[in-house]
Amino acid sequence: MSTTRADRLTWTRNDALVAVGATAVDLTGFAFDTQFEDAPLGVTTGALVVAAGLALVARRRHPVATLAVVLLLGVVVNVVTSVSPHFGLAPSVALYSVAVARGPAVVAVAALLTAPLSSLGQGGLPFDSGYGVLANVAATLLVVVTGLLVKRWQRETEANRILLADRAVAEERRRIARELHDIVAHHITTMQLMAGGARANLAHDPEAAREALVTLEGSGRLALGEMRQLLDVLRAGEEPETAPPAPQPGAGDLDRIITESRLAGMETEFTVRGPVRPLPPTVGLTVFRVVQEALTNARKHAGDARAHVRLTYRPDEVTVEVSDDGPGSGSGTAPERPPGRGGYGLIGMRERVALQGGTLEAAPLDAGGFRVEARLPVPSGAGTADGEESPR
After folding, report:
1. d(Cα 14, Cα 32) in Å, to the nearest integer?
2. DSSP 271
3. 263-287 confidence digits (pLDDT tens)
4. Mind giving me the DSSP string for 134-158?
5. Does residue 199 register a pLDDT over 90?
6. Which of 12, 147, 259, 387 could pair with 96 in a Cys bridge, judged by C-beta atoms 3.0 to 4.6 Å apart?
7. 365 — phi, psi (to 5°)?
8. pLDDT of residue 205
9. Nearest Cα to 141, choosing from 87, 90, 194?
């Protein structure tokens, strides 16, 4: 897996902005303080203040080391410069980072060391034991409490996100179970009709009875496979629900989804490649749902940009790819697609494809836009029909 430039860096743009901001604030504070003391800020002191601020770029990866460097440089500044008691922004940010990233023991030690070290050398004394120490202790406690509260909020947010993702997976599994139930019921009904027809024609039309039995055998094989998948879903702990009587769509119904996408304002191209052949009902349903969800996401995040749907039949698998050109390729505008692995629609698609033994890839394109590709295995015994690449 290739790594991005952001992954290779040990700091981010936000870290750099925080470091520059803290440096500017501390430099300004030291400059005013030394002016009041009739001792202009020297080059050495300014360089130390800048170094302490710039050390914050490493606060996410190495928070404890960053705090140690900031405190050490702060002690040197306090010793070589006569300044009034203060608690700078750089140590505040460094201590906050430790409180958010580390455990209670490390945070307690960091807080116990920060308050006295920040007071060392302030006010022109080896150690200010007056109000300056009390102010630094209060500032240290305020920063630590803020960091701990933020840390708790982050944990609750992450737990809530995981809970929502689990609910999305559970809902998708319930939906799959209902759809598989419909497919199995359809096959069993077909088997019942074929069995009745074979019995009725057995005496006077053996050939018709034989064809009915062949159809009955194929339907039984498919129904058994779908029933096994249904049981796999139900074993995951989901409760079966009453299934709707409406027939489930398949790959043959993609034209309807493409038409709906075009009517919604998105220019959508549909291409079928390879020799077209019948797909198992669950595979066809998965293809339909992947295209439906991907086009919905494309309209949501890419506005009226162009979308491309490609359905490819291969000897042992079927591949469906949905891509869009991204915001700005059409005449309208749309909000930028949020970063990350995707929303709960992608989670549902991934779960659905995985239950079919396939794989799903979803990622932004280098040239802009987004791409979703699902690869689904197809039994080698499936029938085929002549077909060529046909853009629509």
Report:
1. 27
2. E
3. 777 888 999 998 888 888 888 888 9
4. HHHHHHHHHHHHHHHHHHHHHHHHH
5. no
6. 147
7. -90, 150
8. 80
9. 87
The C-alpha angle 73, 75, 24, rounded to 5 degrees, equals 50
Phi, psi of 6 (to 5 degrees): -65, -35
CA 71 – CA 95 distance, rounded (Å): 10
- List C-alpha distances in Å: 138 to 74, 134, 141, 144: 18, 6, 5, 10
Amino acid at 152: R
- Torsion sign, CA atoms 122, 58, 13, 102: negative
Distance CA 108, CA 114 (A): 10
Torsion of CA 228, 253, 271, 387, to 10 degrees: 80
Residues 33-62 pLDDT 10s:
666 555 556 677 778 888 888 888 888 888
Helices (H), the chain: 5-8, 13-36, 43-54, 63-80, 89-101, 104-119, 131-201, 206-235, 254-263, 281-302, 344-355
What is the rounded CA–CA span in Å between residue 309 and residue 307? Answer: 7
Reference 23, options 93, 95, 83; nearest CA is 93
Beta bridge partners of 371: 323, 363
Closest by CA to 139, choosing from 188, 76, 94, is 94
Q: How far apart are CA 313 and CA 148, in angstroms?
A: 55
The predicted structure's pLDDT at residue 279:
87
Residue 321 confidence (pLDDT): 94
- Cβ pair 321, 270 in contact under 8 A: no
